[in-house]
Specification:
The protein is mainly alpha-helical. It has helices spanning about 1-25, 30-40, 50-60, 65-70, 110-115, 130-135, 140-150, 170-180, 200-210, 215-220, 260-270, 295-300, 305-320, 335-350, 350-355, 370-375, 380-390, 415-425, 435-445, and strands spanning about 80-85, 90, 165, 235, 245, 270-275, 290, 390, 405. The protein has 19 helices and nine strands.
């Protein structure tokens, strides 16, 4: 027995030593990464050209850099936006070329190391709210173009706000341990390339999994905030935002495998699909629109995609292997009283726009009958839309979107549960009923 205990103790000691070595390498790895950055093929040392800066501006749009690095009402890219997470609040830093508070003293190598390795100019480990686990796949050429664009911005002297994270998440040691467990730098050369696929699919894979970092929202995360690679793009609650990003590989959620390609492109570039497909023999796509965080992504980022890149992303998303929806647990028919109350609320507040039979109005208000967002097993988005309302993004292809008013001050939790249950179980819809505790959780979840 003693031999077994000694052997176990020795194994634990070896594991602890190995973990310590890995942590030390993470904490002291700045030198190695600087050398790697120096070896990476950088852009020519000559002054950046107008074409390089223009390409960088486009790529910064694709990556939606402004979304996290611009405070509401603040100067573009000057930082200060609060980013809520389950571990506390982070603040996007200043990316303008101010020498004291921004990136004025950063080199192209420093910027590449931040994107590729998740490490700041001074060697500090960066928090993965900055999606370097996705950006690590960005090529050096694209990183240099973005750097050239950011260096061309007007410098803004705006000090960065200190993050407000709970212990131990506010320590470099905890961050180093997280990286040992969950982060492996990519090759930074468009590593998604698959020689068995054509150039369009590979371009879409590069954008979706790299610069556009779609998985940062659409991939579920574990308790420590790391993406679950085995369920990539499989849907999950967005940490700190209280929205559900639906699965991109399930027809029952946000999968587009069976949509006409033009409709996928339209959703990315305008935020809506309006017209029946013109593809001969293809079924018309139901009217669809984006809302919540995805509306901001379309507004700030994907509406600016070139036609070639939008189509490449659409091709890749359509080619995702379809994941079967988990079997729905058996559920009893909603209580008649709840359905009657929901029908009354719907008649008073919803039918004027969404129709007496939930049919909606094409080009204006979405149909609720057969609507995938209404029928999601995770009801967070439906409850949030009832409480807070929302608009599709204003885009060049949809400059004056229709919106939905908020009802959080008009309807209590019982009323919201009733009308949500009604629309989930009327006109041929069938989904689990909600109760007041479901609505309360959505109101209070952080």
């Amino acid at each position: 027995m003693k031999r077994v205990l000694w052997a176990l103790a020795l194994v634990l000691l070896v594991l602890a030593g190995a973990a310590g070595v890995l942590l030390l390498r993470e904490l002291q790895g700045a030198g190695e990464e600087s050398a790697a950055a120096a070896r990476a093929p950088a852009a020519a040392s000559a002054a950046p050209t107008a074409d390089l800066r223009a390409r960088g501006a486009y790529l910064a749009r694709v990556g939606n850099c402004m979304g996290c690095h611009t405070a509401r009402g603040g100067a573009p890219y000057a930082g200060g936006r609060a980013i809520e997470t389950p571990f506390g609040t982070l603040y996007g830093p200043n990316l303008t070329p101010d020498a004291q508070t921004g990136l004025g003293r950063w080199t192209a190598d420093d910027f590449w190391r931040a994107l590729h390795h998740g490490r700041a100019r001074d060697g500090r480990l960066l928090y993965p709210a900055f999606p370097y686990p996705d950006y690590t796949h960005v090529t050096r050429a694209d990183a240099d173009a973005i750097y050239a664009y950011l260096q061309s911005l007007p410098p803004v002297a705006q000090p960065n706000r200190a993050h407000a994270l709970r212990f131990p998440y506010d320590t470099q040691l905890a961050l180093a341990a997280w990286r040992v467990l969950f982060f492996t730098p990519g090759r930074g050369d468009g590593a998604a390339a698959d020689p068995a696929r054509d150039a369009q699919w590979n371009r879409g894979a590069y954008l979706v999994n790299g610069l556009a970092h779609c998985g940062a929202c659409h991939t579920p995360r574990n308790l420590l905030g790391a993406s679950q690679a085995s369920r990539a793009l499989g849907g999950g609650l967005i940490p700190g935002q209280n929205w559900y990003a639906p699965a991109l590989d399930r027809a029952s959620e946000a999968g587009v495998a069976h949509w006409p390609l033009d409709d996928v492109v339209a959703l990315l570039r305008t935020g809506v699909t309006r017209a029946a497909s013109a593809t001969p023999g293809a079924a018309a796509t139901p009217q669809a629109s984006v809302s919540g965080p995805m509306a901001e992504v379309v507004f700030r980022s994907t509406q600016y995609l070139s036609d070639e890149d939008a189509r490449a992303m659409a091709v890749y998303l359509q080619a995702l292997p379809e994941r079967a929806a988990p079997p729905a647990p058996p559920s009893a028919a909603p209580p008649r009283r709840l359905m009657q109350r929901g029908a009354e609320i719907y008649h008073d507040h919803c039918a004027q726009c969404h129709g007496a039979q939930g049919q909606g109005e094409r080009g204006a208000f979405p149909a609720l009958a057969g609507n995938r967002a209404v029928l999601l097993a995770e009801p967070t988005n439906l409850v949030r839309m009832i409480l807070q309302g929302g608009y599709a993004p204003a885009t060049a292809g949809n400059p004056r979107p229709y919106g939905m008013p908020p009802y959080h001050q008009l309807l209590g939790d019982e009323d919201v549960a009733a009308v949500a249950t009604f629309v989930r179980n009327a006109w041929g819809n069938h989904a689990a009923a909600l109760d007041t505790i479901d609505v309360y959780h959505v109101r209070e979840r952080r």
